[in-house]
Amino acid sequence: MQTHDVVIWSIRNRKGRAKPYQLRWKVGTEPKSKAFLTKALADSFRADLLKAAKRGEPFDTLTGLPASMTKTEKAALSWYDFCRKYVRMRWKGAAAKTREAIVDSLTVATFALLADEAVGLSKKEIRAAMQWALLPRQEHDAAPPHLGYAVRLLQKGTVNVSDLADPIMARNICEELTLTRDGKRAAADTTARRRRGLNTALEYAVDLGELAENPLKRVKQKKVARDNTVDRRCVVNPVQARELLVSLSYVGSWHRARGRRLVAFFATLYFAGLRPAEAIGLRESDCHLPDDGWGLLTLEVTRPSSGKQWTDSGTVHDQRGLKQREEREVRPVPIPPELVRILRAHLREFGTAPDGRLFRNERGGVLGASTYSRAWEEARRFALTPRQVASPLAGKPYDLRHAALSTWLNAGVDATVVAERAGNSVEVLLKRYAKCLDGRNDQINRRIEAALQT
């Protein structure tokens, strides 16, 4: 039944409620009400009702809405349901690390988007429940007993996606993105990564028609100078690099060869500039190791490490193509005779895994980050002085790649060649390694001095 008999009252604030702002109106003899998280959302809805009444539109006594709003009204999509919908859309084509980053961004945003009884959940409970709920393979499974209560509250206790149009809510989300688990300020890179992930998700909400525009665009981000350049203090010289490789031979017992089997692995990071994930995926068929002279590695596979829940195989190490390249695209990397000899010796002593991989753990499985990182820490204590051990010098295995690329650039190798071998763009290469370029100041000073004497 429809009627023009409509009375619209003012908004009232019910303090202590999850959605404190309530609008009441009456259609004929039927009282209606709707609660909102913010006063701005309530004002917007009230304005739409008043406009419709002034235009003389009939109101439906069942829904309490005018004809124009009834036609466009659709079931509201909650933030919880939107997150599940978005993750399922992105999951198949995303890398394991990307999946993990997406879930993290959506989960952190959820901290600011709770309603009703879900407001009482702790961030730890929300994080665990959302991580379980957003995994596609869990779609038809019942939540584990220890997560069931939190999952049920989140299913009915998050705001609607349309509510994110409120600028205050968008600001609250952005504030959550800047915090660590213990409430401290997160690193600038972490905040930027979360914001990128959430921004892409909200663009999808716009595509679905849930939002008129991306609310993050209206929240100005404080610009923080991020220094992504490599710290030159972590870069080893060739003598130090070789001492570290020798010291690996003394890690663990000689019988178990725990450190000795990793010498060639770390040598590929230093002499070939490989990323650890690329070295882990290196196969014998990828290697051209002549008796004399330079060899060649033809990289095709990378084995990045992620949690089992993020990979398609259910294992810690995903198998993917090279970073920032098309699937099946390869990257040739010439290697010096010293590395050729090291790899040949490694193959003679340790052979390969059943699938042809050069490097494996003691049980023959994929080499894990914890395994080679522990060995590296022990090697540093053998090779370096106590003062150097306490310093950033070669603090992480990845620093060997930094040392390799810095050495190439300082040797005068053209940046385009270094970038091609390293799998980077020239722009990123020069920006990241700007502080590691030595030997330029004296040359520049001599040129300036000569110019002043003319």
Write the layout of secondary structure elements.
Layout: E1 2-3, E2 6-13, E3 21-27, E4 30-36, H1 39-54, E5 59-60, H2 67-72, H3 79-91, H4 96-110, H5 123-133, H6 145-156, H7 167-177, H8 188-207, H9 238-248, H10 263-271, H11 276-280, E6 287-288, E7 295-299, E8 331-335, H12 337-350, H13 369-383, H14 386-389, H15 398-410, H16 415-422, H17 426-432, H18 441-452
Antiparallel strand pairs: 1-5, 2-3, 3-4, 6-7, 7-8
Task: Describe the overall structure.
- By secondary structure, the chain is mainly alpha-helical.
- It has helices spanning 39-54, 67-72, 79-91, 96-110, 123-133, 145-156, 167-177, 188-207, 238-248, 263-271, 276-280, 337-350, 369-383, 386-389, 398-410, 415-422, 426-432, 441-452, and strands at residues 2-3, 6-13, 21-27, 30-36, 59-60, 287-288, 295-299, 331-335.
- The strands form 3 sheets. A 3-stranded antiparallel sheet has the order 2-3-4, covered by helices on one side. Strands 6-7-8 form a 3-stranded antiparallel sheet. Strands 1-5 form a two-stranded antiparallel ribbon.
- α9 (238-248) packs antiparallel against α10 and α10 runs parallel beside α15 (398-410).
- The longest helix is centred in the middle third of the chain and has 20 residues, at 188-207.
Any descriptors?
about 450 residues, mainly alpha, hpI Integrase, Chain A, 3-stranded antiparallel beta sheet, 18 helices, elongated, Tyrosine-type recombinase/integrase, DNA recombination, Integrase-like_cat_sf
> From the 3D coordinates, which CATH architecture of the largest domain would you assign?
Orthogonal Bundle
CATH-defined superfamily of the largest domain: Intergrase catalytic core
Could you estimate the helical fraction of the residues in percent?
Answer: 40-55%
CATH fold category name of the largest domain? hpI Integrase, Chain A
Major pleated sheet: 3 strands, antiparallel
Question: Kindly, what is the distance between the CA atoms of the first and last residues, rounded to a whole number of angstroms?
Answer: 97 Å
Succession of helices and strands: EEEEHEHHHHHHHHHHEEEHHHHHHH
CATH class of the largest domain reads Mainly Alpha
Based on secondary structure, the structural category is mainly alpha
